[in-house]
Write a structure and sequence with these properties.
Layout: E1 9-10, H1 13-27, H2 46-59, E2 75-78, E3 82-88, E4 100-106, E5 113-119
Antiparallel strand pairs: 1-2, 2-3, 3-4, 4-5
């Protein structure tokens, strides 16, 4: 059961494989998740995918598959109607970078993740 309080919580274990798939697709440049259909994740709109690609390029380091160290800093939090999920991404040379994937899980559905952005908060 996901927590509905004012605290940040570690990303639940069952979600981690989904985020690993997303990060793996992003590492190959598939920001719309066209080639990597990740179960439980909404397709990424073209404009959002372009924005993510631009932010990754501006960061200056290519994305890589998620390092397990990312789970030490990645969190979710209840935001009055949905859960906000923040996952720190891995780049080449950085096991945990400052680039963060921002996603939301809406209630009452609670089973479809929408990717909102990747940027440095």
């Amino acid at each position: 059961m996901l927590q509905k309080d004012d605290h940040e919580h570690p990303v639940p274990e069952p979600w981690r494989s989904m985020f690993k798939e997303i990060a793996g697709a992003f590492a190959t440049g598939d920001f719309q998740l066209r080639n990597a259909r990740v179960e439980g994740v909404e397709p990424v709109e073209r404009g959002i995918a372009d924005h993510i690609a631009a932010n990754v390029a501006a960061y200056g380091r290519p994305l890589a598959h998620l390092n397990d160290a990312t789970w030490e800093r990645s969190v979710y939090r209840w935001m009055d109607g949905y859960w906000q999920v923040l996952v720190d991404l891995t780049t080449v040379g950085e096991p945990v970078s400052d680039l963060t994937l921002h996603a939301r899980l809406d209630e009452p559905d609670g089973c479809r993740l929408t990717i909102e952005s990747v940027h440095v908060p």
